[in-house]
Design a protein that fits this description.
4-stranded antiparallel beta sheet, 2 helices, single chain, mainly beta, about 150 residues
Length: about 150
C-alpha cells in the first residue's frame, strides 16, 4: 500500500513535486497538514497549472499513523495565494476521504474533487470506487456529491 501511495504521489497535479515556480510545496504542506513534518504522499491541486495564475489550491497529505501496520491518515487544506506574496493556509478541510485526489474544479464559492474510495467488496488496501466531493470554500466542509 505504501509503495502504491508513493508512486501515485510523485506528481502534484500532474507536475513534478519540485515543478518550476511553485516553491517548496512539501515544506508548505507538511508544516500545516502533518504532525510529524513528513508524509508518505502529498498532492497539490491548484485552480491553475500556471503558478503565476493560480490563486487557490488544495494540499493533500497522507501521513503514516505511528504504530500501525502501514496505515496512513489523510489531511486536506485550502491554500490561498497572498497578494504579492507566498501561499497562505486558509484552514483544514473537514470530512474529505479517499486516495488519489484529482479532477479539482473551483467555481462560485465551491470546489469539486474526485478521490477513490473502497467499494463494498474491496479490501482496505485496494479501493476502486471514484467518489466526487463538493467542498464549501467558506466553511471548509466537504461532502459526497450526488
Amino acid at each position: 500500500m505504501k509503495a502504491l501511495l508513493l508512486s501515485a504521489a510523485i506528481c502534484i497535479a500532474g507536475l513534478p513535486v519540485a515543478a518550476e515556480g511553485w516553491g517548496n510545496l512539501d515544506a508548505l504542506l507538511f508544516s500545516h497538514l502533518t504532525r510529524s513534518g513528513n508524509a508518505e504522499a502529498s498532492y497539490w491541486l491548484p485552480n491553475s497549472t500556471n503558478p503565476t495564475q493560480a490563486t487557490a489550491a488544495f494540499g493533500v497529505v497522507y501521513e503514516y499513523i505511528e504504530g500501525s501496520a502501514g496505515s496512513t491518515s489523510i489531511a486536506v487544506g485550502l491554500f490561498l495565494k497572498q497578494p504579492q506574496g507566498p501561499w497562505g493556509f486558509a484552514g483544514p478541510v473537514a470530512d474529505l476521504f479517499g486516495h488519489n485526489p484529482r479532477d479539482v474544479v473551483f467555481e462560485d464559492g465551491f470546489a469539486m474533487m474526485t478521490t477513490t474510495m473502497p467499494g463494498p467488496n474491496d479490501p482496505r488496501c485496494c479501493p476502486t470506487v471514484p467518489t466526487r466531493w463538493r467542498i464549501d470554500l467558506a466553511r471548509l466542509q466537504a461532502w459526497q456529491a450526488r
